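Exercise 7b. Backbone tokens:
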């Protein structure tokens, strides 16, 4: 069964503007604060993508150079709620998720 849900990505808040060079240090802080597990890192010419684990769920922490922004992408449809919850925990409840 393929359970696909449409979802809008919500940018993660960063105190300082993110850049390709500053993203890894910011991502390490993100992982520590939310008690996530780093599973794998991938980097391309204009993106960085880290696979993270949280209580049995997996999410991708994505950074795109041209947009200078980061967001969480659920690894599967089953991880959508976890990605939304983690985004809300980081950004605060005033940011709409979903």
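Sequence design result:
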């Amino acid at each position: 069964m393929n359970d696909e849900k449409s979802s809008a990505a919500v940018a993660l808040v960063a105190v300082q503007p993110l850049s390709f060079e500053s993203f890894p240090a910011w991502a390490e802080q993100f992982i520590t604060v939310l008690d996530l597990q780093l599973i794998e890192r991938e980097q391309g010419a204009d993106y960085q993508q880290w696979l993270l684990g949280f209580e049995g769920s997996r999410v991708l922490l994505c950074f795109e150079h041209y947009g200078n922004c980061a967001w969480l992408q659920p690894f599967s449809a089953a991880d959508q709620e976890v990605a939304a919850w983690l985004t809300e925990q980081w950004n605060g409840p005033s940011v709409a998720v979903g």
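Instructor comment: The longest strand covers residues 47-54. The chain is about 25% helix and 30% strand.
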